[in-house]
Design brief:
Layout (H helix, E strand, L loop, with lengths): L1 E4 L8 H14 L4 E6 L4 H5 L9 H5 L5 H4 L1 E3 L2 E4 L5 H9 L7 H6 L8 E6 L5 H8 L3 E7 L2 H20 L5 E8 L6 H13 L13 H5 L7 H4 L4 H17 L1
Parallel strand pairs: 1-5, 1-6, 2-4, 2-5, 6-7
Antiparallel strand pairs: 3-4
Helix pairs in contact: 1-12
Amino acid sequence: MVIAIINQKGGTGKTTTAHNLGIGLSMEGKSVLMIDLDPQANLTYSLGINEPDGSLTDVLYQDKSINEVIVQVGQLDLIPSDIDLANTELFLSQQQNREFVLSDKLKTIEKNYDFIIIDCQTSLSVLTINALVATQKVIVPLQLTIFSIKGLDLIVTTVNNIHNSLNDELELLGVLPVMVDKRRKLSNEVLTLIDESFDVKIFNNHISNSVRVAEAPSFGVSAIEYDGHSKASQNYIDFTKEVLQSLK
């Protein structure tokens, strides 16, 4: 099962969600491969890798095999990213069947894992389209602000278009509210607006706003590993179980 974590806006907890979902799935006994599809390489850094020997750039641009660049980090396998991945955009845009490059690469190793989690970049680019073509399910981490609604509308439209034209297995699994402060009236108003305006699932387990979650990447670990007793970490553990239940 391939799951893409997407939000075209930065600072929405996208990478944090990808990392903690990967850890949560591994805690459930699942084999997990993480793919950092963002040239900013935030997921790679969050997993404690600053200068990888190989990266996704080598796979997409230099035609290395995926197995040559996979790095084992604790319970997870990772295909790292680096800043050079940004240059891959132009290269891919000039290729025939450019939307299927990542999908074709993943076919060689997909059977080795229960889950492949793709942390997408913060734009609906050629790389992101590649991720959506290679993916079965999409999760959208979303802050509960009015501005997030416009971004969600764009993502829903893009997912539907790719489902209809390039990948009929693609499905929006759900929206995950993150950095939630339930004391704020606006949070509940935005949730209601999403529920009324979009035909999407909103996960029952929301991720609480937490300083501990923000601290974890500096230590190269997930929030769950950094402080498993924090409310947000427990939120991510419960969210992982809800994802598994949804997939049944």
